[in-house]
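User: quick one
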Amino acid sequence: EVQLVESGGGLVQPGGSLRLSCEASGFTFSTYTMDWVRQAPGKGLEWISFISTSSDTIYYADSVTGRFTISRDDARNSLYLQMNSLRDEDSGVYYCARGAGSGWLDHWGQGTPVTVSS
Amino acid sequence: DIQMTQSPSSLSASVGDRVTITCRASQSIGRYLHWYQHKPGKAPNLLISAVSTLQSGVPSRFSAGGSGTEFSLTISSLQPEDFGTYYCQQSYTTRMYTFGPGTKVEVK
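Assistant: Done. Structure below.
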């Protein structure tokens, strides 16, 4: 069974940093692309970052470019999101998701909440 | 950037009703259109990939179609467990996936 489990969320002050993790199991992690998607309170889903297999290709949404860094450790079956210079508008639930085919996301974690507030 | 819109933004329907949600893209996106169901406190669930391919385990009352810039998701006979918010997503631009704003479905 495919499982994705996010962790690392919490309360942080504006300007602070957090590192989210996503531990994968039930599939060969190294052969799949991965994404991060978030949902701000009361808002819809927002795609924020993509990483290819072997980390060859990385993309970010404009809203997080220069502040967030996606990475993966295939030996640990883990995906990461380093979030720096956090803003109030970065608050929300952060999901990791497995990429498949031509860009759909076929498995998602339960999410980890991030609150940016002073 | 490709913008996605959905209509309606919310709907309330009875068990057994036929429900259709429309998703429009600001430019042609070929078959790079996918649909998700998201329930509060749960992980989003992929329903349909590449315009019309039903995912394994998704009930056959769900169907979808469309082309170019206009797409639709239909629930042929709404069931109580179909509540939630439905999102379309485009992956035509690999550097910037975008989701539609969502359609909240309430089952009366």
